[in-house]
């Protein structure tokens, strides 16, 4: 905060601080308190709200625990989000290293343009594009059949399609933090390690990855949180039996109309995401301020 005052002066810096605090209060604190308060109260008709039956209980959370199907979907969402995170990490790390340490300026510019152009469309259109690609008569089946890898079309919709769609949707949120972190690594360190006989695997394990751990942690946090809270990709690419936890939250709010139970499910998802974020930061030994810089 002192840096803001030193850079912009006390009047302008104070305005920035007030605006940030108002944004945090209006967009984070107040909605969070409302969700927690609603999750602990029973679903009652308007005439009974505020009466003797309107007390704080844990019944909405107990319903999630006791409803085995919803609990399984919750755990599947956690596991699938972790799978999306791992897939994007494995895909982005070599690309990020090439962009930051190997590619020339014109190669980097061309690559960045090619990667950014699809993201000029919104997430719904990109999801629909994947819906067409994975369709029974889509180009994926046509290409695999033309190569002789399939005898008949395969239905790709389901958990696999959702993971693929999410990995594509959030790949840049993993790529850019890692690329920015690796770009600050001096090339002389890599050259010195190579001259001393280190293998490529050892160079990455002992030099590049420790240096880029802040970027890796930031990318993992971003991708996991967005995957766990995604609704569009599961709705478009998921099969009837591959539901996502966010779809259940949506049903409680907007189809069933039980906002209290929907709030409890939302709070459970938020608590899970927060636990995973703190766990990732502890795993990479990165503090929160370093991850969001």
TrEMBL record:
Topological category with respect to the lipid bilayer: Multi-pass membrane protein
Transmembrane segments annotated in the record for this chain: 12-36, 78-99, 128-150, 162-183, 262-284
Domain of life of the organism encoding this protein: Bacteria
Domain ABC transmembrane type-1: 74-282
One Pfam family it belongs to: BPD_transp_1
InterPro entries: MetI-like, MetI-like_sf
Keywords, sorted A to Z: Cell membrane, Membrane, Transmembrane, Transmembrane helix, Transport
SUPFAM superfamilies per the UniProt record, alphabetical: MetI-like
PROSITE patterns: ABC_TM1
Predominant cellular place of this UniProt entry's protein: membrane
Cellular localisation: Cell membrane
Protein family: Belongs to the binding-protein-dependent transport system permease family. CysTW subfamily.
The protein's name in its UniProt record: ABC transporter permease
Source organism: Thalassovita aquimarina
């Amino acid at each position: 905060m002192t840096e803001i005052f030193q850079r912009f002066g006390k009047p302008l810096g104070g305005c920035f601080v007030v605006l940030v605090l108002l944004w945090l209060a209006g967009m984070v604190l107040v909605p969070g308190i409302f969700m927690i308060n609603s999750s602990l109260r029973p679903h009652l008709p308007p005439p009974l709200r505020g009466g003797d039956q309107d007390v704080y209980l844990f019944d909405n959370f107990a319903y999630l625990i006791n409803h085995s199907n919803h609990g399984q979907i919750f755990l599947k969402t956690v596991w699938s989000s972790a799978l999306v995170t791992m897939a994007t990490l494995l895909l982005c790390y070599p690309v990020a290293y090439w962009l930051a340490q190997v590619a020339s300026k014109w190669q980097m510019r061309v690559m960045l343009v090619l990667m950014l152009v699809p993201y000029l469309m919104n997430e719904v259109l990109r999801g629909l594009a994947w819906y067409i690609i994975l369709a029974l008569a889509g180009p994926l089946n046509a290409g695999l059949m033309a190569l002789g890898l399939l005898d008949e079309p395969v239905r790709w919709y389901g958990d696999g399609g959702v993971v693929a769609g999410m990995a594509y949707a959030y790949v840049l949120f993993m790529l850019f933090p890692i690329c920015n972190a690796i770009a600050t690594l001096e090339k002389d360190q890599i050259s010195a390690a190579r001259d001393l006989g280190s293998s490529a695997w050892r160079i990455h394990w002992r030099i590049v990855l420790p240096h880029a751990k802040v970027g890796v942690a930031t990318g993992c946090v971003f991708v996991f949180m967005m995957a766990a809270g995604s609704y569009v990709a599961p709705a478009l690419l998921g099969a009837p039996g591959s539901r996502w936890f966010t779809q259940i939250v949506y049903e409680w709010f907007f189809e069933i109309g039980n906002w209290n139970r929907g709030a409890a499910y939302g709070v459970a998802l938020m608590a899970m995401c927060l636990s995973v974020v703190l766990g990732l930061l502890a795993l990479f030994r990165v503090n929160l301020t370093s991850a969001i810089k």
